[in-house]
Amino acid sequence: MPDTVFNGQNLKTFEKALKENYLPAWRNQLATEPSALLGKIKKIKLVSNKIVASAPIGLSGGFGYGEEGGETPQAGGVRVERFETNAKDMYVNVVISEKAVKLTGSSGAMANALDTEVKGAYETAKWNIGRSLFGNGTGVLTTFEGMSGSGNVITVDDVSNLKEGLIIDIYPTNGLIPQTNGSGRRLLNVDRVNKTITIGGNAATFTNGFITVQKSYNKEITGLGAIFDDNITSLYGISKAANPFLKPVVYDCDGDISDGMITKVLRRAKNEKNSQIDMIMAGDEAFVHYVDYLRVNNIRVEDRTHEISGGFKAIKFIFGNKEIDIVNESFIPATEMWGVETGCLEFHGLEWNFAELQGGGIFNLMENQSAYRALLANYGDLMCTNPGGCVRLTNVGDYRENI
Question: Rounded distance, CA 60 to CA 76, Å?
Answer without folding.
Answer: 6
